[in-house]
Design a protein that fits this description.
The chain has about 80 residues and is mainly α. Helices cover about 50% and strands about 5% of the residues. It has one domain. It contains one helix and two strands; from the N terminus they run ββα.
Length: about 80
């Protein structure tokens, strides 16, 4: 897809998405939502890995926090 998202015939903006990393216009069907630049692909992969790891740690700490309240009640 070209960087021109304005249709010259109608002057309207064509439907499009933007790359999550560099914010360049990309196709609507692009999944994952990054352009074809290798740096963007690598950064998106790192970001997804970090999000997955943070989600795991969040559930671990939530479980520890919940057990600190529920554990004493169950151990009576």
């Amino acid at each position: 897809m070209t960087n021109k998202v304005v249709s010259s015939a109608s002057g309207k903006i064509q439907p499009h998405k933007h790359c999550r990393v560099c914010f360049k216009p990309i196709k609507l069907s692009a999944e994952p939502r990054v352009c074809s630049d290798q740096a963007c692909i690598d950064k998106n992969a790192r970001d997804e890995k970090n999000q997955r790891q943070m989600r795991i740690w969040m559930f671990v700490f939530l479980g520890i926090f919940a057990f600190s309240f529920i554990g004493p009640l169950l151990l009576r």
